[in-house]
Amino acid sequence: MSGIHRHARDQLLRASQSIPLNIAEGNGKATEPDRRHFFEIARGSTLECAAIQDVLEVCGAIEPDENRKGKLLLDRIAAMLTKMGGRGYAIKEGESSYEQTSVSVSESLSAADLKPEVR
């Protein structure tokens, strides 16, 4: 993992490793709140992986199709962890395309985009 995108790729590796490790640790806990806590951490790492993929796509390090395929897997993992955690969260991400333009973060994201939908 060398090159100009090394830091994002390293973070993707750490976040993706965090998912199964937190699932395993959560399964070792005796109480539901303790288990749920680790499943929620794993779910957060899953969402982090999706965000890192977006960053890598915008930077041109991965192709849009590769990002889409990865997001499908991550969406499924997040759905399973949502069920395991039992809190009623929903994953919602709108369709968009990325272009190689400079857009400020405030133009591309709103606060509502960053909040999970709670049912």
Task: Walk me through this protein's architecture.
The protein is mainly α. The chain has a single domain (6-118), classed as 23S rRNA-intervening sequence (de novo design (two linked rop proteins), Up-down Bundle), CATH 1.20.1440.60. The chain has four helices and two strands. It has helices spanning 6-27, 32-58, 64-85, 105-108; strands at residues 89-90, 117-118. Helix 1 packs antiparallel against helix 2 (32-58) and helix 2 (32-58) runs antiparallel to helix 3 (64-85). The chain is elongated and about 45 Å long. 19% of the residues are buried. Mean pLDDT is 80; it is low at 100-119.
Quick recap:
By secondary structure, the protein is mainly α.
Could you list some keywords that capture this structure?
single chain; disordered C terminus; de novo design (two linked rop proteins); 3% strand; two-stranded antiparallel ribbon; 119 residues; 4 helices; mainly alpha
